[in-house]
Amino acid sequence: MRALRLLVSVAAASAAACGPTVDLTKGLQVTVVNTGWYDVGIVNGQNKLVPAVSFTLKNVSERTLVSLQVNALFRRVSENDEWGSELVIAAGSSGLAAGASTSSLTAKSPRGYTGSDQSRLEMLQNSHFVDAKVDLFAKYGSTQWTRLGSYPISRQLLPK
Fold first, then answer.
1. From CA 17, how far away is CA 13, in angstroms rounded?
2. What is residue 19's predicted lDDT score, i.e. its pLDDT?
3. What is the CATH number of the domain that holds 70?
4. Which of 52, 64, 118, 124 has its CA 20 to 30 A from that of 144?
């Protein structure tokens, strides 16, 4: 019985993969709920803030998007190199059905700013503080990564 379920699952995934692909720039609607700086707490004796973004996705295509993933790439606005990233699973093997939306998803960079003698609000106002942005990329199944958009990180503390 277990082998039969596995065979049916593989067949269903294969059949879904054979259909026409969805252009995620048109088939996926991104709503950025909030951007800002997440207070990680005290790390190695210092306050630590990391850039974060919260968003929802709506499948506006006519197909279920199986194994939908989002990669959030954080960069400082003055640099082209990646500063940090986080992979978020938006929908697993059951997929995101046509017309459906995800719950709120959050991505945080592992890298950020630390300060020992400043409050978190003072860190955001520091003259050496460099703003950040996040680029969101998505893919489903075995498709290639597609850039969904770029969003500035607001200079605000996000609630925990």
1. 6
2. 63
3. 2.60.40.10
4. 52
What is the span of the domain harbouring residue 117? 22-158
Its sign, for the CA torsion 149, 155, 159, 160, is positive
Report the 10 Å Cβ neighbour count for 92: 11
Q: Is 28 exposed, middle or buried (0-12, 13-18, 19+ CB in 10 A)?
A: buried
pLDDT in tens, 109-137: 999 999 888 888 899 999 999 999 999 99
HSE-CB for 58 with a 13 A CA cutoff:
7
Predicted TM-score (pTM) of the model is 0.85
In order, the DSSP letters of 79-119 are -SS--EEEEEEEE-TT-B-TT-B---EEEE-S--EEESSS-
- Residue 153 CA to residue 23 CA, distance in Å, equals 26
Closest listed residue to residue 49, CA positions, set 117, 130, 100, 124: 124
